[in-house]
Amino acid sequence: MIAETGLAALWLAAALSLLQLLLSVGELRGAIDAGRPIRSIAIIQGALTLIAMAMLLLLFVRTDLSVALVAANSHSAKPFIYKLAGAWGNHEGSMLLWVTVLALAGAVLALATRRLSHRTLVVALGAQAALALGFYAFLLLASNPFARLDPAPLEGRGLNPLLQDPGLAFHPPTLYLGYVGLSVAFSLAVGALLTGDVDRALGRAMRPWVLGAWVLLTLGITAGSYWAYYELGWGGWWFWDPVENASLMPWLAATALLHSVNVLAARGALRAWTMMLAMIAFSMSMVGTFLVRSGILTSVHSFAVDPQRGTFILALLGLYVGAAFVLFALRTRKLKEGPPFELVSRESALVVNNLLLTVILGIVFFGTLYPLFVEALSGDKLSVGPPYFNTVAGPLALLLAALVAVGPLLAWRKERRQVFKPLAVPALIAASALVISLVAAPQIGWLPRLGLVVAAWLAPASLLPLVVRNPWRTPLATWGMAVAHLGVAVAIAGMASDAAFTKEKLAAVRPGETLSVGPWLVRFHSLAPAVGPNWTAIEAELRASRGAGVRVLKPQTRYFTDPVTETNEAAIATMPGGQLYTVIGQPDGEGRWQLRLWWKPFVALIWLGGVLIAVGGLLALIGRAVRARARARPSRGTNSWRRERYG
Amino acid sequence: MKPKNQRLVLVAAAIAAVLVAVLLAMWGLRDRAAYFYTPADIAAGRAAEGKAMRLGGMVEAGSVRREPDGVTIRFRIQDGNARTPVVYRGIVPDLFREGSGVVAEGRMQRGTFVADAILAKHDERYMPPQLGNPAAEHEAAKTLDR
Questions:
Q1: 3-class secondary structure for A402-447?
Q2: Dihedral sign, CA of B37, B40, B42, B47?
Q3: Which of A299, A304, A363 lies nearest to residue B125, judging by beta carbons?
Q4: Which of A382, A400, A510, A568 is most worth mutating to test chain B (most B CB atoms within 10 A of its CB)?
Q5: Which of A239, A594, A595, A597 to mutate to test the interface with B (most CBs of B within 10 A)?
Q6: Distances from the Cα of B109 to the Cαs of A374, B59, B84, in angstroms?
Q7: Which of A235, A278, A461, B43 is the most buried (most CB within 10 A)?
Q8: Pairing of strands A565-569, A556-560
Q9: Residue with the larger pLDDT of the pair B93 and A461
Q10: Element of type H or E holding A530
Q11: In chain B, pLDDT over 90 holds for what percent of residues?
Q12: Which residues of A touch B52 (CB under 8 A)?
């Protein structure tokens, strides 16, 4: 009964989205006034998908094995939180989550949008419905999450133990919220192109969505990176795996869009440019979904191959992206030109930011898809990895980070003052960082060294926008910008430090023996069995010391029964100066065990930086919301779009 | 800049950015893409010495030997037609077994494949290693083609 309720809710939601699309077309043609009904429909549609998602969660919690999806991905002995997370840790469930978020975003758009032209909103809701409709079709026709299994099996097949981790409960929903938040920017761009109202109001309506989506993508990528770091036990934090790139590409596009939508909202400039980026950003979200969901990649996270589904998503992708770009080509000439700006101005700096991000996005895009093209055309298998991405995209990213120090100091439209004077201090710090690194660590590579210098330059410079004026009277959004830019510097410092200073030791040792790695002495103290809810393990006890004090680390090899798998659980000790990362491998049959140790100075700055970037975005989001509310207060009680219409 | 000019400049800049990205990507991909080889390819002399590549196939049964240092492992990868000796220093992944599929990343040096990494393919859905391994699938597809 639960499964049938969910399925019915899904069908109803699909029907409503069709109605929503038709109403919006009617409004666009001037045949009807769809403002009121279309909002209600969008909200009901969101509620229906929420019901469907709730039903699926309920099925997983109850481990209802008569549902094929539950039987294939769950197990009655699984801990509660992973039963829940199992609902979206698979193809059908994650697509249901995707469409739920899509419909909810439409509902919020309908509920919360003020001060946007009425027609633009209605058409944007129609675009959102068109997007949702495709994914409903995909769910209902090609990957029904509620399909029954007859006869029901006695026990489920379980979930890959690698995915039994708090990271899984948190990571995909965050990324999806980010992906799908960009769908609203896409729909608003489509709506505004169709009605021709690309103006500051549109920029203001789009900005919170872009900011919110970008914050979530940032958090999702940061969490995913840390998850891969401690869960895979390889000591790396980014592998340039296509699945990772699938989340990085929307982030790069969203970062560019975030900066250009600010120009649109504040100055009314970069109109066509921002519309283009809004389309690219969501296109990248769909490319990401396609890469991950179609099973076209066989990588760390990849899913079982099912070509029918891949074709379906590819067709949706082609349809939406193609239609959007045709629309852009047809309508962009009709857009009014925004106010002009000089070559040295905030606008120009943001254009440079956008150009560099676009180039980096292009490089990641080609590098990720090249193997697929080659395999499709010639049948040759190949992989593109860190040597390509680091060498080609790395220097550009550092160039961008270096320019981040300058942009915020420039004035809108035309720079008249002497802005470069305050940059003397960061320049001095960067120069000393270069000299110190050359003297103290002559052996490190040029890219990590450049990273250290850029971080030393950007970290103090990112705070200058706060220092040059009274920080307490600075708007919250400016604080957000400064914190986010500081986060970039901090993350780069962590990446460079990890690349430059990591020490590694690999050896087979007996209990009682001691290894040294970096400044640490690590004693292999003992070995003992350990037991968890659905696994058993061999656990090593390591005692690490550096001068006074001992840190105890307990890396494990875990053996899971449902399904039968073993995994390495790294033990990580975080200290102010870095992380000690330890993994236990196999025994050699003569009483020795393989131990792999890393000493990674300041590696945690990578994720701290990521969190800072997200916090910065959140501050900006809050600051903007407070301001918008303050601005709207005089007219409280009336919907401004309604006023605009009837007033 | 006049408005008309400004749009023109922006469009030119955007096109230039895309072109730069394409050129950089093509330059970068020319010698940084690691191709996938099988032992048969290597036996036929198709793989250049010292070039980054991936080698895929089955771990030959009975071929796994551990060096006295306890962390270096030697084994052979075979694909039914040929075999290639491999040496790897590190912890092999969980799915590494004699007779099961494997993908090694590294380069050829004097007839031996020196691996920097042994790849495990983790699937969320459980599958026996032979079926879940892309190299095995690749081989199976090849066999069917013949």
A1: HHHCCHHHCCCCCCCCCCCHHHHHHHHHHHHHHHHHHHHCCCCCHH
A2: negative
A3: A304
A4: A382
A5: A594
A6: 26, 19, 11
A7: A278
A8: antiparallel
A9: A461
A10: strand A520-531
A11: 12
A12: 387
| Nearest Cα residue to A372 out of A318, A297, A286 | A297
Chain B residues with beta carbon closer than 8 angstroms to that of A233: 91
Pick A337's closest partner by Cβ from B7, B34, B138: B7
pLDDT for the residue numbered B105: 87
The sheet carrying A593-601 orders its strands as A503-509, A593-601, A578-587, A571-575
Chain A residues touching residue B12 (CB < 8 angstroms)? none
Question: Confidence class of residue A56 from pLDDT cuts 50, 70 and 90?
Answer: very high
Q: Which chain A residues are Cβ-neighbours of B10 within 8 angstroms?
A: 270, 273, 351
CB contact under 8 Å between B36 and A565, yes or no, is no
Look over chain A and give the mean of its residue pLDDT values, rounded to a whole number: 87
Q: What is the DSSP letter of B104?
A: E
Q: Do B94 and A298 touch (CB under 8 A)?
A: no
pLDDT for res A321: 93
Interchain pair B36, A270: CB under 8 A: no
H-helix or E-strand spanning residue A598 = strand A593-601
ipTM rounded to 2 decimals = 0.77
A274 pLDDT tier (thresholds 50, 70, 90): very high
Per-residue tokens: A410 = 């420039």
Q: Give, in order, the Cα–Cα distances in Å from A40 to each of A23, A98, A111, A125, A205.
A: 12, 21, 9, 11, 19
Please name the residues in contact with B5: beta carbons below 8 A apart, sequence gap of 6 or more. Answer: none
Strand, helix or coil for residue A511: coil
Best of B46, B123, B131 to disrupt the A interface by mutation (most A CBs within 10 Å)?
B123
Scan for tokens 């320049």, then name that residue.
A427
Half-sphere exposure in the Cβ direction for A252 (13 Å, CA)? 24
| Span A417-461, pLDDT tens digits | 777 788 889 999 999 999 999 999 889 999 999 999 999 999 999
Q: Give the per-residue pLDDT at A80.
A: 81
* Residue closest to A53 by CA, chosen among A8, A13, A4, A93: A93
**Which residues, at least 6 apart from A418, have a Cβ–Cβ distance to it below 8 Å?**
none
Q: What is the mean pLDDT of residues A30-36?
A: 80
B36 pLDDT tier (thresholds 50, 70, 90)? confident
Tell me the shortest Cα–Cα distance from A585 to chain B, in angstroms.
6
- A547 close to A553: Cβ distance less than 8 angstroms: no
Find the largest Cα–Cα distance for chain B: 76
